[in-house]
Amino acid sequence: MTYVDGFVLAVPQDQLDEYRALATLAGEVWMEHGALSYVECVADDVPYGELTSFPRAVQAQDGEVVVFSWITYPSREARDAINTKVMADERLKHDHENTPFDGKRMIYGGFKTFLSF
């Protein structure tokens, strides 16, 4: 079964175009290095929950929108090899001070697929 990296982050609404440009480049790089898919989604129906929610998880502030994204791979081993190549790819080397989101509030992790239709 496939392996999935998942991400949730908050992006300032006024920097969404910059984020889209960065995500477009990242998606192209991941796909070139062997990812099966690369998906970026912007929150549309994501209420602020009393205890838990996507906005709470990333400490979304006024003027920020939640982004949910994932990358799929053939396996964990393929993901590890692909990510090594991606992290070494010069096209993704950039000034982290000017990244259009706060990486400290990004949630990410790798997941084994256990059910898929």
How would you characterize this protein structure?
- With 117 residues, this protein is an alpha+beta fold.
- It has one domain (3-95, 105-111): Alpha-Beta Plaits (2-Layer Sandwich).
- The chain contains three helices and four strands; from the N terminus they run βαβαβαβ.
- Strands 2-3-1-4 form a four-stranded antiparallel sheet.
- The longest helix has 17 residues, at 16-32.
- The model has no long low-confidence stretch (mean pLDDT 95).
- It comes from Sphingosinicella xenopeptidilytica.
- This is DUF1428 domain-containing protein.
- Pfam families: DUF1428.
Task: Name the features.
117 residues; alpha+beta; Alpha-Beta Plaits; 4-stranded antiparallel beta sheet; 4 strands; 29% helix; DUF1428 domain-containing protein; DUF1428; Dimeric_a/b-barrel
Structural class by helix and strand composition: alpha+beta
Q: N-to-C terminal Cα separation, in Å? A: 11 Å
β-strand percent reads: 25-35%
Q: Strand-and-helix sequence, N→C?
A: EHEHEHE
- The radius of gyration is 15 Å
CATH topology: Alpha-Beta Plaits
CATH architectural category: 2-Layer Sandwich
Helicity level, as a percent range?
25-40%
Oligomerization state of this entry? Answer: single chain
Strand order in the sheet with the most strands: 2-3-1-4
Number of helices: 3
* Low-pLDDT ranges: none
Pfam families: DUF1428
Protein name: DUF1428 domain-containing protein
Organism: Sphingosinicella xenopeptidilytica
SSE layout:
Elements: E1 3-12, H1 16-32, E2 37-42, H2 54-57, E3 64-73, H3 76-88, E4 107-112
Organism: Sphingosinicella xenopeptidilytica
Protein name: DUF1428 domain-containing protein
